Amino acid sequence: MPRIPIADRPTTARGARLLGAGAYRPRRVVDNAEVCAPIEGADADWVFARSGIRTRRFAGPDETVVAMSAAAAGDALTAAGLTVAAVDVVLVATMSADTACPQVAPRVAAELGTTAPAFDLGAACSGFCYGLETAAALVVAGTARHVLVVGVERMSDLLDPRDRGTAFLFGDGAGAVVVGAGESSGIGPVVWGSDGAQSDLIVHSPAPPDPVDGPAGEGVPGLRMQGPAVFRWASTEIAPVAGKALAAAGVGVGDLGAFVPHQANNRITDALVRALDIPDHVAVARDVTGTGNTSAASVPLALHALLSDGDAQPGDLALLCGFGAGLTYAAQVVELPPVSPL
Fold this sequence. Notes:
alpha/beta
C-alpha cells in the first residue's frame, strides 16, 4: 500500500513574542507584624532582614485561583489589543490548584469565554518560565497563533502559619502574558533543567486524613523548606544558567533593560546580581518586597510591576529566571511587551 504523506504543519511564524502582560494582586495586604504573630521568636525586622519582604497579599474567599487567573489574563489580552476569540491555547502554571481534577486552566478558559484547549503545568517557581517556552514552541510549530500563559498561586492555602521556615515568605496573586507569532523572535532559547536528587529541599504533601494538631512541622500539613540549602543552591547554581541563557540569545548583560529573577527573597537576587555583574542601568525586579514569594506567579508579577512603574519599557530586553521546588530551573531572554494603562 503506498505511503500517504501527512500534511505539514500550517505555520508562517518565524518566532514567538510577548504581546501583552497583565496582573492581579489580591486586595488584602498582610504586613510582617501580622504574619509573625503565630511564629515563635519572629518579628517584623527579623523577616525583613532574612527576606527583604515587608508585605505580601493573601487572597480572600472570592479570589480563587480561577478568578485571579481570569483577571490577569483579561488584563494581558487588553494590553495585547486582543479579545478572547483570538486565544488558541490557555496554559496555567501553578502549584496551589484548588483541585487536582479538574485542572485550573479549563475553568479559566470557561471563565474567559473560550473552549480553546487548556492545561496546567506544574514546575513550582519555575512554572511560568517553563510555560513561556511551551507557549513559544506551540506558536513556532504552528499549533497555535496566540497562547495565554498564566502564573497563579494561593500559597496562603499551603502554609502552616506557625512554620518558621516558610510562613512569612509566601503570598498570593496572578500574572499573565499573551504569546503570539512574530516575524522575528522576541523570546530567546530557554536554558532549563531539574535536579530531582534534591527534591526533598522543598516539599508540600497533601493533608493527611486526620491532621495532627501539634507543633509546627509535627504532622501538621504545610509547605516545608530547607531554607539554608535552597539559598546555597540558588545563589551558586542559577547564575551560570542565566549566563547560558544570555549566550543562547546572543546578547550581553549590558544589552539588558531589566533582570527579572524569581522573587524568592532579596538576598538571592543580590547574589545573582553580583554573580552576573548586572550593570547599574539594568532595572532589577524587587517585587518580593511588597508581594512576597508567589511561586509560579512571581516572574510575571515582577515583570508587570517593572513595566507599570516605568522602570522598564516595552521593547527592552529582559532576562527572566525561574527556580524552585523540584528542584527546577529555567531562564530566557525576552523582549518586554506592553501593559494595559492603569
